[in-house]
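Observation: inputs received (chain + uridine-5'-diphosphate).
Thought: call the complex predictor directly.
Action: predict_structure
Action Input:
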Amino acid sequence: MKRLYNTRKRVLVTGGAGFLGSHLIDRLLERGDEVLCLDNLFTGTKENLYHLHNHPQFEFMRHDVTFPLYVEVDEIFNLACPAAPVHYQHDPIQTTKTSVHGAINMLGLAKRLGCRIFQASTSEVYGDPSVHPQREDYWGNVNPIGPRSCYDEGKRCAETLFFDYHNQLGLDIKVARIFNTYGPRMHANDGRVVSNFIVQALRGEDITIYGDGSQTRSFCYVDDLIDGFLALMDSAEGFTGPVNLGNPREFTIRDLAEKVIALTGSRSTLAFKPLPQDDPMQRCPDIGLARLELGWDPTVALEEGLERTVAYFSGSLE
Ligand code: NAD
Ligand code: UDP
Ligand code: UDP
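Observation:
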């Protein structure tokens, strides 16, 4: 539908009340776009969007992506899906439906509108990887019937659908494979390491290290990741991805615990707990493709990002 008066770009963000979605929406509004946020508020909250109350270019719609959606927009960011294991394992069937039926509906919408569509995929498509660091041409090592399968296989099938709509129907798609990301508005209780350590340190509780803390992860600050989303969405037609977005600087979990203790000035001590089954020893993205095609490289150092995240949790735990 042609716009009669309004010349702003209208952008649909599914999962917009969540951690990443709400940051993305802030950036889209800042640059002058109009945003339709769609969310069923399963893990997202209205608190993440309170500051946008009465914003003239912002609209919220409560809707589940597993049901068809008929709206008129110019671009779609498809982020709807619980991301933390405790959340996506709460109702595994619904998790797969969200990824797969959600992708079908949003692709159907993009097809009808002839508009560009972005998919928030994940490093979990690599499963428990046997190559390090992971490049986009690695096919992964995923268990199809385990407790993580609803998330991993749902996201893999969503990628398949995106590429089939692209190859068969010429849809303009952009697929990002997102690695561990942290920052303000991440969930305090979802068991992820950054939020766990910060909350434990602020409360003076033991910092729970699983295993001996020698396993490594690479953590991307949310603002850097959103820069990557926008660079990918605005890249030339024909560059579809999948493209890894994450921070390639690796830290051990013990390093992370020590940094959090130093930053918070906490008197918490380290408590070593058993390592969960199938916990990867190492996860690190190869971001050569993002550097080459998008000119993107994360810039926020771990200490700086942690400082901002600690400030957020200090405020929200009061
Ligand atoms: P989040 O849980 O904070 O946000 C997900 C949002 O989707 C929530 O607001 C939730 O209410 C909404 N949602 C869930 N099911 C829905 C449904 N059926 N219909 C409509 N809305 C629904 O998680 P996040 O960290 O912001 O993740 C956003 C996206 O990025 C997800 O697709 C996730 O898989 C992907 N991702 C995130 C990370 C990360 O480190 N945070 C890493 C890899 C991939
Ligand atoms: N769909 C939607 N909004 C639209 C167009 C389609 O939600 O504006 C949904 C519709 O429910 C359909 C799905 O997207 O089931 C896939 O659409 P597509 O056109 O690819 O398939 P078809 O309608 O031919 O089954
Ligand atoms: N971890 C930990 N203590 C915690 C939470 C997590 O030592 O309180 C470890 C976990 O075992 C894993 C790493 O931190 O090795 C990252 O865990 P997270 O769940 O954040 O992400 P993922 O394993 O999906 O990368």
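Thought: report the result.
Final Answer: The radius of gyration is 19 Å. Residues 68-70, 104-105, 108-109, 111-112 surround uridine-5'-diphosphate (ligand 2) (CB under 6 Å).
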